[in-house]
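wait is this the right file?? whatever heres the structure
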């Protein structure tokens, strides 16, 4: 128990400092990410034995073995009143490393997050695929949690989430929500997606479209009429479409474009920028499905999507450059953003 209390003190410091992330790396002192910037904690250099003493007691045994065998693992960790954390444990050149990211206990609404209100439209789609995309740490999970919570407040759906690990915990309101964690409740995203098809879902949330099998099954679920929300690590709508199609073998890419063109309902691309006065603010690109966009995807002309986004302002669409420009004109970010 002593080792757990030791890590908990670091997490309390993280919480008190308002940090989003806590980093441990063998050969360096612990570090915090505050306001988007890394800051060193006044503490001695971490040794391999230190990291083992800190991490092994709080890591589920199966996850620890996975770390030993493969070099990295993910899990979630909760500390009483301090909060809940997503944890990545990994091996690197100097030894081992670990990153804790705080998961807010309260799920914030789209409005509370300062996101465009037109994102509420995504809670009204009746089927198909919605992708939230952006670099690591851009708030994808937070945005999806807000959308799922809006569904939970307003719809009578059965929602199945597939995550690695489970981040935001949803209580049942109007919806019945089952949250499944990879490694704990299912061996892989693909296996969990396959099982979800037999669980009578209205909505499936896929924590990450990691590989061909997962992407193919998500597209198939959307094609069957299920609402599928998923995340991807790309920077904008064009790269999102290209990434999905490119994972398929060359002979299957035309078919993948056709399925994506029919099933895609929306893409939300976001990035967090340094905010004037401290903190960070989200710049968001929003694309809603339209016959013209579907036609471009089907024909492989995705480079022309940007002009349709720019012309779709009345439908609530906005491209990334315009979103950043709006933030600058509102005095929320500097010209360097």
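ok assuming it is, sequence goes like this
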């Amino acid at each position: 128990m002593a080792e757990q209390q030791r890590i908990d003190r670091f997490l309390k410091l993280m919480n008190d400092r308002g940090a989003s992330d806590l980093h441990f790396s063998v050969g360096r002192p612990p570090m915090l990410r505050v306001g988007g910037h890394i800051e060193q904690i006044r503490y001695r250099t971490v040794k391999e034995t230190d990291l083992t003493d800190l991490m092994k007691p709080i890591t589920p045994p199966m996850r620890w073995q996975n770390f030993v065998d493969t070099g990295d693992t993910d899990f979630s960790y909760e500390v009483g009143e301090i909060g809940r954390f997503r944890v990545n444990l990994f091996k690197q050149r100097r030894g081992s490393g670990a990153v804790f990211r705080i998961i807010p206990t309260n799920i914030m609404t789209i409005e509370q997050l300062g996101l465009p209100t037109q994102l509420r439209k995504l809670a009204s789609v009746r089927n198909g695929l919605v992708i939230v995309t952006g670099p690591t740490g851009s708030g994808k999970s937070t945005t999806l949690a807000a959308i799922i919570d809006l569904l939970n407040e307003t719809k009578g759906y059965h929602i199945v989430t597939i995550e690695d690990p489970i981040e935001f915990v949803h209580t049942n309101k109007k919806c019945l929500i089952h949250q499944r964690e990879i490694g704990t409740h299912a061996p892989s995203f693909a296996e969990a997606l396959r099982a979800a098809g037999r669980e009578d879902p209205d909505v499936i949330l896929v924590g990450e479209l990691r590989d061909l099998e997962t992407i193919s099954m998500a597209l198939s679920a959307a094609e069957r009429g299920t609402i599928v929300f998923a995340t991807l690590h790309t920077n904008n709508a064009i790269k999102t479409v290209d990434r999905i199609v490119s994972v398929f073998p060359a002979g299957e890419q035309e078919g993948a474009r056709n399925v994506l063109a029919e099933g895609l309902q929306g893409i939300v691309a976001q990035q967090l920028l340094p905010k004037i006065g401290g903190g960070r603010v989200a710049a968001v690109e929003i694309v809603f499905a339209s016959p013209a966009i579907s036609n471009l995807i089907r024909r492989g002309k995705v480079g022309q999507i940007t002009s349709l986004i720019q012309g779709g302002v009345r439908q609530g669409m906005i491209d990334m450059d315009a979103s950043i420009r709006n933030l600058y004109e509102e005095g929320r970010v500097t010209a360097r953003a």
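The two ends are 45 Å apart (CA to CA). so i think its the right one actually
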